[in-house]
Structure formats: C-alpha cells, structure tokens
Design brief:
Helix content is 19%, strand content 27%. By secondary structure, it is of the alpha/beta class. The chain is globular. The protein has a single domain, classed as 4-Layer Sandwich (Metallo-beta-lactamase, Chain A). The strands form two sheets. Strands 6-5-4-3-2-1-14 form a seven-stranded mixed β-sheet. Strands 7-8-9-10-11-12-13 form a seven-stranded mixed β-sheet. The longest helix has 11 residues. It is built from eight helices and 14 strands. α1 links the parallel β3 and β4.
Amino acid sequence: MLDDFEHASIVVLGSGTSIGIPMIGCHCKTCISDDPRDKRLRPSVLIKLDEHRILIDTAPDFRLQALRVPIERIDAVFYTHSHADHILGLDDLRPFNFMQKSEIPIFGSPEALDTIKNTFPYVFNGVATQSSKPKLTPHAFADGDRIPFFGMDFETIKLCHGTGTAYGFKFGDCAYLTDHSAIPEESMSRLQNLDVLFLDALRYNPHPTHQTVEQSIRTVERLQPKRAFFTHISHDLLHASVEARLPENVHLAYDGLEIPIGKAARP
C-alpha cells in the first residue's frame, strides 16, 4: 500500500499532446506564452516510491525529461498504448541498463508490445549487434490484471481511445488515465473515491479520440476524487485562464509538477 512508503509522489514528465507545446510553426497565445506551464512535452509520468521509480510511457522527449527531473533509476515501465508519442523514447532506457547492470521489465497489452517490438526490432530480435541496445523484458497484461511491485499492485484499467484501446493504471488510491475518449462502465466502477485521478482533457472542442475539458469535469463529478489533474493538453488551452475556471479540486497538470501521494500527502 502507498502508506508503506515514507516518500511517494507522482512527477509529471510531460503534459502535452502528441505534437508538444509550443507546436512547430505556431504563434498562438499558448505557443508564444512566457508561462512555463504552457511548455508541454509529450505525455508521461514518473511514480516515486521511496528509492523505487516506475515510469509510465517513454515519450519522444524522454531523454530531456530524465535530465530535467533528474531520473537516475527505472525499475519498470508501463505502457498505456503504442502510439508514437508514448513509445518513441524507448531507446533512451539504455543508460539505465548501464547504471543498474540489469534488464528492465516493461509491461503492455499484447497489441502494444507487438507494435513496440516491430518499431524497435533490434531490441527484441535476439540478433547480436556491435552497438549497445536497451535490455528489456516484455510482459503482457490484460484488463484488470494486478501487477505487484514493491508490495503494491498496479491494476490495469481499460479505456476507449476512439475505436482503439488504451490502458490506465491504478496504484493505491491513485490512477493515471491519459489518452481516452470514454471510460467503460466496468472501468468506472474501479475508480471511485480516489485521492488522485489523472484524466485526458485535450481541449474544449470535441475530438474523436480524446475527452474534452467539460467531459473530464463530468467524470470528476461522477467519480469524486479528492484531487484531479488534466493532462494530454493541446495548445488550445492557455494554462492560467483555464486553471482559473476549473473546480477547486481540479487542476491542469504541467511539466515538472510533483504531487505527494500516500503518507507524504498528509500533514
């Protein structure tokens, strides 16, 4: 359980959409904003459990994210799905192999792992190379699986990502749900009354594969978490102006945000 850890937190490595913010060639208010909360790398979080580190997704910006925090250990990687903005930083796991002198377990749905293996064949095909490559051990999961790490389960939560599927992860009384356009009823029942809930909130206008800000506010009203954070944010949302209009317990995530959880969240 989370209370078994003296120091536990969720660090937002990236809160942006697939193109990142600022978007290349864009001069909108958000993309030219001086507010550092409007500078958004691709979506990912790091879960700190005392000395342990669990990474969710390896975004294309992972190297920069790891240097910023900094991250000096990765005990496991969980993949929400296999879109480019969630997997393309995989090769930058190599330094952690060097430092830890061990393979790193990665977890994903069978479909996500197949795409990852096809995207990075040199990592998984068993063919010897003269260059170094990540040393990773893939493990497939299904909806509702509970994957134990350091005395705590990471539960997989199935989500609708347009016509496709992505997964969120529940750990203790926290859950991280990024890319989704809807949450199935059977998943909703496992997300009630959390302390921390992350939700996709791309923009105000409808999108076929992501929730809007208003849809995610309705999800918060139904699930009643103590604290909610919206992520996978497009350049349509200027942080300060949107944050000012959100309910008191709801916030826009931003890169570098660290959220105490478990025992560390209580005075």
